[in-house]
């Protein structure tokens, strides 16, 4: 993870992200439960899933995986700069973090990841 990207999280947020990522199975389950709950309300659901599939792809470089998992961890964690229950603006901080991570690693998110995200979303 680049220093500039990680500096956007507080020390407490980074520790919570690290703790969450240590249990990959639980993290994946938490991610999917949260996504299913909000997928219809957020315009960046497909990007979230594409990032998830890219991060889970063994061919994805470690730096890219860590960057994406940190951003996805922010989406999953209950602590937020802007609470997600606030209408219209609740997910803006999540969207900004995801957008920054995707922009940082855009070349690593392959068409297969995006197609799998579309298919998965269609099934929710």
Compact summary:
With 124 residues, the chain is mainly alpha-helical. Helix content is 68%, strand content 0%. The chain is globular.
Quaternary organisation:
single chain
Detail the poorly predicted runs: 1-6
Give the helix tally: 7
Largest sheet: none
Q: What is the molecular shape?
A: globular
Number of strands: 0
Q: How much is the radius of gyration in Å?
A: 13 Å
Q: How far apart, in Å, are the first and last alpha carbons? A: 31 Å
SSE succession: HHHHHHH
Structural class by secondary-structure content: mainly alpha
The proportion of residues in beta strands is: under 5%
Question: Can you give the helix content as a percent range?
Answer: 55-70%
Average pLDDT level: 77
Key structural traits:
single chain; disordered N terminus; 124 residues; mainly alpha; globular
Detail the topology: elements first, then pairings.
Layout (H helix, E strand, L loop, with lengths): L2 H4 L4 H12 L1 H15 L6 H12 L5 H15 L15 H14 L5 H12 L2
Please tell me about this protein's structure:
There is one protein chain. The protein is mainly alpha-helical and 124 residues long. The protein contains seven helices and no strands.
